[in-house]
Amino acid sequence: MNVIGIKFKDGGKIYYFAPEAGAEYAEDMEVIVETGKGQEFAFVAFPPREVEDAEVTQPLRPVVRIATEKDREQRRKNRERRGEAIRTAQEKANAYGLAMKIVDCEFSFDGNKVAFFFTAENRVDFRELVRDLAGTFHSRIELRQIGARDEVKLLGGIAPCGRVCCCAGAMPDFCKVSIKMAKVQGLSLNPGKISGLCGRLMCCLSYENEHYSEAYKKMPKLGGEVSTPEGRGTVVSNNMLKYTVRVKLEKDGTVTYKDFPLAEIRFRGKGAPAEEPAGEEEPPAAEPAEETAASHRRRGGERRQGGAREGEERNGPRPPRRDERAQQSAAPQERGDAEGQAPRRRKHRRGHGKKNGQGGGAPAPQGEN
Fold first, then answer.
1. Do 142 and 84 lie in a common domain?
2. Residue 316 lies in a domain
3. Which of 90, 111, 127, 142 has the fewest CB atoms within 10 Å around its CB?
4. 3-state class of 304 per DSSP?
5. pLDDT tens digits for 334-344?
6. What is the 3-class SS of 12-51, one letter each residue?
7. Spatial separation of the C-alpha atoms in residues 293 and 334, rounded to whole Å
8. pLDDT of res. 90
9. Would you say residue 335 lies in a domain?
10. What average pLDDT does this structure show over 202-220?
11. Strand, helix or coil at 127?
12. Tens digit of pLDDT for each residue in 282-335?
């Protein structure tokens, strides 16, 4: 499918549009495109090219035309109104007592809609503010709450490295960063050194994280003992770009620090294996870890029987369980049936267990003389 790449601001996300038939486009050319919000002023990110249909999100909206001088004038007027609109919105928010900071605003190309971006610690009820702003600008008003990262992306700034913030100049989307990335790269965990202008972790921590993660697995642990061509020492630091290790060596009361290539040192743990000490016998081969279910049950039964025998030796035979007592009581009855004799039945009398019939009801009748 033939598409053209369009972006709405420098460093912004690139979208696919359908190029106008017969038009010639160049990079950074100003164009007017059709969006879900109406016509918008945009820039060409790359000329028309063929892409797979699966990469295109339907429906593919068209490029209306190449921007004219009238279109550029309209965009310039909208940008001039931006500063005054932000001040007016902030004053009205303060008048309503709303704890919010108006960061930026955008006018649609035709001027019929104004979107304000603000930051706040909590959710804000801005319904009254929206009605007031709609009456002031005579346009549809939209208020969007954004985070600290989005604020820096909109406003821009100079990062600690001396370049424009990555989120404002080189990152279409935010990437996921974590403190683990700083640990793997051996950076100081001081928040002031690994945080950007937004107060969050710097986005650039993710740029080379894949390389550092692989190198970290091969390097020795800081403070660990390693073997070097000049003797044993302690790891002081690792250079994951050059694959070198700085080792602290102590010899004859003298302490020296020296860098060794990773291939020349031996250590235990992650990375290269440690040297085997001389004269040490090889450990016996371990038994196979796999075990069938039958053998596992058999071994478990042997352990239980062995434990029962040991308990009998220490504490004497255990008393029979309920099911065993039932079997024992049933055994004489079975023998009697086999010999042709009637089993003995226990006679129950009224008042059994009472002396002289007390408490056992009426006495038993006596026979006639």
1. yes
2. no
3. 127
4. helix
5. 444 444 444 55
6. CCCEEEECCCCCCCCCCCEEEEEECCEEEEEEEEEEEEEC
7. 39
8. 95
9. no
10. 89
11. helix
12. 344 444 444 444 454 555 555 555 555 555 445 555 555 555 555 555 444 444
Which of 130, 146, 162 finishes a domain?
146
Q: Using an 8 Å Cβ cutoff, are 126 and 98 in contact?
A: yes
The set of residues, in sequence order, having a beta carbon less than 8 Å from that of 231 and lying 6+ positions away, is: 249, 251
Rounded to a whole number of angstroms, the distance between the first and last alpha carbons of the chain is 124
Which two structure tokens, joined as six digits, stand for 315? Answer: 């504490």
Residue whose entry in the numeric block shows the structure tokens 């503010």: 129
The tally of domains found in the chain comes to 4
AA identity, residue 111 = G
244, amino acid identity: T
Q: What is the pLDDT of residue 134?
A: 93
If one compares 58 and 180, the residue with the highest pLDDT of the two is: 180
Q: Count other C-beta atoms under 10 Å from residue 209's C-beta.
A: 20
**Residue 193: domain span:** 153-207
Task: Note the pLDDT of residue 245.
Answer: 92
Q: Are residues 21 and 38 in the same domain?
A: yes
Q: d(Cα 71, Cα 49) in Å, to the nearest integer?
A: 26
> Would you say residue 295 lies in a domain?
no
Count, residues in the chain: 369
CATH number of the domain that 259 lies in? 2.30.30
The SS3 of residue 102 is strand
Q: Kindly report each contact of residues 221-227 with a partner whose C-beta sits within 8 Å and lies 24 or more positions away, as own/partner.
A: 221/267, 221/269, 221/270, 224/267, 224/268, 224/269, 225/267, 226/265, 226/266, 226/267, 227/265, 227/266, 227/267, 227/274, 227/275
